Amino acid sequence: MAMEVTQVLLNAQSVDSTVRKHAEESLRQFQEQNLSVFLLSLSGELAGEDKPVDSRKLAGLILKNALDAKEQHRKYELVQRWLTLDMGVKTQIKACLLQTLSSPVHDARSTASQVIAKVAAIELPQKQWPELIGSLLSNIHQVPAHVKQATLETLGYLCEEVSPDVVDQDQVNKILTAVVQGMNANEVNNDVRLAATRALYNALGFSHANFSNDMERDYIMRVVCEATLCPDVKIRQAAFECLVSIASTYYEKLAPYIQDIFNITAKAVREDEEPVALQAIELWSSICDEEIDILEEYGGDFTADSDVPCYYFIKQALPALVPMLLETLLKQEEDQDLDEGAWNLAMAGGTCLGLVARTVGDDIVPLVMPFIEENITKPDWRQREAATYAFGSILEGPSPDKLTSIVNVALNFMLTALTNDPNSHVKDTTAWTLGRIFEFLHGSTVETPIITPANCQQIVTVLLQSMNDAPNVAEKACGALYFLVQGYEDIGSTSPITPYFQEIVKSLLHVTDREDAGESRLRTAAYETLNEVVRCSTDETASMVLQLVPIIMTKLHQTLEAEKLSSDGREKQNELQGLLCGCLQVITQKLGASEPAKYAFMQFADQIMNLFLRVFACRSATVHEEAMLAIGAVAHATGPDFAKYMPELYKYLEMGLQNFEEYQVCAVTVGVVGDICRALDDKVLPYCDGIMTQLLKDLSSNQLHRSVKPPIFSCFGDIALAIGENFEKYLMYAMPMLQSAAELSAHTSGADDEMIEYTNLLRNGILEAYSGIFQGFKNSPKTQLLIPYAPHILQFLDSIYMEKDMDDVVMKTAIGVLGDLADTLGSNAGSLIQQSLSCKDFLNECLSSDDHLIKESAEWAKMAIARAISV
Amino acid sequence: MAPHDLRRPFKRPAISDQQRRRDLSLLRQKQNRLDAQRRARCLASSVLSFQSEPKPPSQEQSHFELELELEIEPDAEEHQGPATTYDVRQASKLRGTEARRWFAKQLMLPEWMIDVPPNLNTDWYVFARPAGKRCFVVSSNGTTVSRLRNGILLHRFPSALPNGARINNVSRSSQSYCILDCIFHEPDQTYYVIDMVCWAGFSLYECTAEFRFFWLNSKLVEVGVCDTPSTFHKYRFATVPVYNCDQEGLQTAYIGPVPYIKDGLLFYNKHAHYETGNTPLALVWKDENCSEYVIDTDSKGQVPNQQQLVLELQDDGRLATSDDPSVIFGWLNEDFIQKTGLHAGNLLRFAVNDGGLSFVDGKLEKADLQYLGQSNRARAFADSYSKVMFQYIVRHSPLKIEHLFASIGPLGDGDIASHDVEMAA
User: Fold this and answer.
1) pTM for this prediction
2) Is 3.30.470.30 the CATH classification of the domain at B18-285?
3) A714 touching B, CB under 8 A?
4) Final residue before a domain boundary, out of A101, A129, A157
């Protein structure tokens, strides 16, 4: 068999699909028959200097895929499989891999590097393969440059794959020393220097101790900065990537180097090749990101504690930084607006300018205004576009006070330019800038309105006109209209948009029907804007929103009539169905919230539901999700009558709940089950066996994305509240599940912020389940069934209180559960409650909370407890 | 290790509309869940029960004939029909006589202060009672209704109370009703809220006064009920400043300025629940300085020479107060009842003759009464014992503000003394 491996691997890359499939099948059988021998032959193949490079590469690739997978569950299986493999076999494989690093064939070395890192990622956390790093480091001193290069590359991959906490500082020091030496200007071989520079990028996450040591940090920074001046463009680019990463990982260490960094980047932005110049701009964008985060944490209160102080690098660099960025704006490419993947100096520069504006606020305005004034009327479109882009970029950050007067002058100019400028690129940016004006300077929170009765009509007219322009311009005009209407979101009962409502809706529908609406995201933008128009509408226009229902339904119906679609056509159909379902969802939610409009809307309910059910038959993840969301809105609006759709809908609910891969679909379906429970109350009972079974399966699965689990627990509560004591038969399954999840989520010690956030979501879900169950059983003769669970629940409340890391939402739900328990169990739980910490310290803390929802729940709990212990 | 992609979003809104749709749906679901939860919690505690004995006027004649049976089986009244339990929400839908009967029984009626309760300064609140019509304000199903003490409708209007007006943007559960205990103050057309019984479907009957007042003050402000009237909020609502009944509190309530005409002082025991009917845990007290209506007036607004009182005629001819248990002031003999065509349940007006009321060991022993006739039809109840007593002592030896201050404790400083002088002047 081993003899044949080379040929099979080559056949597996054959252009002849029959040969290829046959080879793939042989490989699969080989792997299934004897995994150890299979992996051994692959490693032998990869190491074999007499083998063709293509078979060696594929052997390495299959090895790599035998060690890791994207999907978490599969990844876990592969790790376990490797760990249980015979030690001798593994030792042999690893020897082959290390040996391959010395191969003169570049592709073989490079593949081996990656496989070694994958093995390391499994074994190092298990304290296995302790000699790996030592033996790699000994390679560094070998003479052949290609071995050194492969070793550095391996160290780079290793740092990328392995978590820093499984490598001890001593080894980190040695790795860094080797890597930084390899980057040094003394290193004559550019391949080695490039590999070292890329390795450093990954090793930076290991270097916290070294960055805290002044001498070591100085040395690393000097070498990185020198590498940005290397004659080899790839090395310069890689060195800048390191600088970008350092700027965000070690922001607080930058102060001594910032002047040099500015000089290096300014030179690169002005003189270097584009890939390098883009990295140089990205460095300043990253510093902006850091300072925006820090300042946000300060919350405007400069005495507040923050882990990292703000060094105001951007503010200090401003006089030099802004002119440098403004120069880049003039380097636009023709038609960049038509290329989805475009990313050039002008785009990066403008984006960075926007971040700078957010960082420094008002200070940027006087530095940019002269550039705008000078260029905005120039005959060269590049100058007009650059000026407009600069203006649009600085609209977020500076105070409205600073901007309003300027915008008032500019607004008219922009409207004229959008109508009359001969250049489409300028119009695109102008429409985008108008959108930014409306986004940041228009709305109920802005004191001086930009849009007045005097100019509203003109603005609407120009935007609607622009929707007939080129797709990219029309798309931006839709975006501007989106923010224009959003500004009237909470206007009350009379909106200034009302007189134009009909015309706006007509124009947007017209855009969706344009032949070229598939370009530049135009159709999507038009529907999204239509959604926002509906969301922000008032009762005055409810009848017009109602008229939209049959129109959107007809469009959805048409997508269902299309026959024999190509795969491309099917994709487009799915996308369109998603947009239309989304639109119907928004309309349903809007009209469902208004009593008079709701009744008129309900006449369409049957037809809408029928369409959604047909959409489900198309089975595409996104459509499924949108239709499901929409169904939730219909259920909420319909109430108990929704029962008539259940027989047909049920199987799709089940399907949604089974969709582990597209977890969003599963999550949305869980939410909709909640909607249905609230709509149907006890009429949901006949479907509960199936739903509960599926939910319990979901919870036990380690394939399902963890974010879906908290809502599933909440859904238990929804079901229990709807069916009351009928929940009895699920108690024996649900309660142990809740109990073990509660135990897991009681303590968070040592977890990071993200984990604490998730734990709180989980706690909230568990508590909502308890709440629903207690309230569901209230006043039932079966209340006593819950008594055995009370001690654990009270203990859970006590322990999360002691843990002191719950957020306000959990606090509100938790104190509510205490009340529900007391309310439902009454005197049966009186003494238990009195023994708990929750009914004293925790309750008191909630009673004196500033959050009125917490206070309300606490007051209620206090009452319920008083009743429970007084009886 | 290829170069890392550094493209940032360009000319794009940061949030996709699809994400927005998801987020808004989640938000709606969260809100719906919260509502469902609240509903579950509120319903659990808002069930009020009362004995329903609807006796339509047409049956009143026959009722008299039932007397004999009733005497044979004294418990018969309780067996007459099953106790009818109305949820407050259901009750809010009651109309006509039924509604009147129901609401007439739901108000907490303070007794009159005829002696000073102990621990006045620690266990009691005091506030100046606004002059006006005591009423229940009920918001439900998008409208607000106020009903007087006897159950008669005062106003029907839109208000900013939860579910108190049809405002289309807000979808509220039908169970989100409110019941406020108010005094309608004519001069500024304002409802002064003196107590809160239900809020957004949340029953406060079983809560202490301390909590009810806290809740009342925070909730009314929250929903903007105290704001200036508008289309959807026809009448202004206002809270009444409530003080701890210490020297300072009592003094402020007594002489401090308020935006309304005062009609005496109300004292609420901090730990008492909202009890329907007469309760000694809420007290009313008046003198000429803080009320225009200390001594009862007749229908023409004149103070009669003799104290008048209203008593209920019972089956056996006895004349009872509205208290539970009632206090018997005397009886009418059967001849008189026959002759005048009176029957049990009638409210009768009497004057206190020169003989007055005599007491033995603090208990009423004898009352010298003179029958004047049937009372005004609008009246729902007889006078309470404490009312009669208060009126009696006001005419003979009134309980003065000095007595109240004295009971609170030794005077801390000269304030009260100088205050006394002022009052004397």
Assistant:
1) 0.71
2) yes
3) yes
4) A129
